[in-house]
Amino acid sequence: MDTGEVRVPWQPLKAFTKEVFVRAGMPADDAEIEADVLVWANLRGVDSHGVLRIPWYVELVDKGQMNPRPNIRILKETPATLLIDADHAFGPIVTIQAMRLVMQKAHEVGIGWGLIRNTTHQGALAYYSLIAARNDMAGIALVCSPPNMAPYGARAAGVHNSPISIAVPARRYAPLVLDFATSIAAGGKLRLAQDKGTPIPLGWALDKDGNPTRDANKASILLPFAGPKGSGLAVMFECLSSLMADNPLLEPTLLGLEKERRHRQNGIVAAVNIGFFTHLEQYKENADTLIEELKALPRADGIQEILVPGELEEQTHGERSLTGIPLPAGTIRKLRSVAERFGMGMPQGL
Known about the structure:
The chain is an alpha+beta fold. Helices cover 39% and strands 17% of the residues. It is built from 11 helices and 11 strands.
């Protein structure tokens, strides 16, 4: 199917994205951060968390659910832990700040663990875990939101498809980084299928009545990966984040206390100082050896290369940095609508 896809250089796309958020009310420095996180996702091939999110973010600003000028506050703090209220900040603004704070703690006491309450969509979580990995620490990031996924055995949403990312450094290779949702497919992939006008695989989602569907426009309830394993992780992530931050997100919906769905999230960022447990350079050398030995294993039929976590995205980043970011017709149409609203021109190439 022809999706009307156009390749756009990343630099003007990032400049466009920044300007949108400035005009939506964000300080220029924060808008630069938000643009970087979204375009970075596109560069890595994670288009479900890239610039297709712009119209939704602007809509949430209009509704008062995303705050372009938040009052971010530290509520509680110990040498190793941190609780932050984000005041409904754009996710990247508070999450980058929180990761840097827990890294400082890890530098001092070996580990930093931060809870963030009342934030909003954070984009691709690998962005944050990689901040730690690129500073020679292990990084973890996870997030929870109100229900959008059916727990195993159910036909209605009861949990969130809470994603998690873990990253660690290597020496000669890029950091190993794992980033996945607890659903079979991330919710943003439904948005991408809508923009492309393509069906989704059966088994990704249910419609509002709990029936399997291949129509991305009718899909409203995600399904967990690996059945009870995916939904079990989602339950435990809620317990580690939202309940611990005294800000439950699943319970109000399940009890029927929240009739209108509002976008909000709670999250965790953590950093582990590898040097507190072992020699850092030896750790990185061991990571290199692990990568090399995994890639040297006999390949299954039809497999040309064994990839380690994060490698495919790193390859895509290199390719798209040179050839541009592919945007489907649906995304372009929505970005044009945003540009018209703010009296802006479209990025070069569109």
